[in-house]
From TrEMBL:
It comes from Natrinema altunense (strain JCM 12890 / CGMCC 1.3731 / AJ2). GO terms for molecular function: oxidoreductase activity. Residues 30-176 form the Thioredoxin domain. Gene3D superfamilies: Glutaredoxin. PROSITE patterns: THIOREDOXIN_2 (PS51352). InterPro entries: Redoxin, Thioredoxin-like_sf, Thioredoxin_domain, Thioredoxin_ResA/DsbE_sf. It comes from the Archaea. SUPFAM superfamilies: Thioredoxin-like. Pfam families: Redoxin (PF08534). This is Thioredoxin 2.
Length: 177
């Protein structure tokens, strides 16, 4: 009887620990090196971003991508460290932010461009309205950031507020020096 209680307790702790890692974003199944297929996303006209399309992630380049939303206060505070990192990377690194907000329903392209301008965004901003990129990265929530190496394998992910140093180190480790 006692042994069964111990085993049930150990199993419960293991489940709790795994759930806790998921809840705080410390574990991502894609960090195992699985490659992500490139997805064509619409880019909008905003500071540092031209209207058109972008293939994200772009094979052959280290890619930094952050998923954000204009209603997210943590995303708003994350713009400063993102800007600091963006200033330090060269053209060998694809640097892009994408929102999955329902454009045309609760937000317009102009709203996103205004938010981008108000928060000093100066790199490509894209729309993931079909959630293709979000699903490919197995992301849940915003902000959620990823670094992918030249073969489109996830090498780092972070959920919530990340420091500029942490993001830059992840880009460097993926080969985006």
């Amino acid at each position: 009887m006692r042994r069964r209680e111990v085993l049930v307790g150990v199993a419960g702790l293991a489940a709790l620990g795994g759930g806790g890692a998921l809840a705080v974003g410390e574990w991502n199944p894609l960090e195992s090196g699985d490659a992500v297929d490139s997805i064509e996303l619409e880019t909008i006209d905003a500071p540092g971003s031209d209207a058109g399309t972008a293939s994200v992630p772009e094979r052959g380049r280290v890619t930094f991508v952050e998923l954000f939303a204009t209603w997210c206060t943590v995303c708003e505070r994350q713009m400063e460290p993102l800007g600091a990192v963006h200033e330090t990377v060269d053209d060998d690194v694809q640097f892009v932010s994408a929102t999955s907000e329902p454009v045309g329903n609760t937000v317009t392209r102009a709203d996103i461009a205004d938010w981008w301008r108000d928060h000093d965004g100066d790199w490509p901003v894209a729309l993931d309205t079909d959630l293709e990129l979000t699903e490919a990265l197995d992301a849940s929530g915003v902000p959620y950031a990823f670094v992918l190496d030249e073969s489109n394998a996830v090498t780092w992910s972070g959920r919530g507020r990340e420091s500029a140093d942490e993001i830059r180190s992840a880009i460097d480790a993926a080969g985006g020096e």
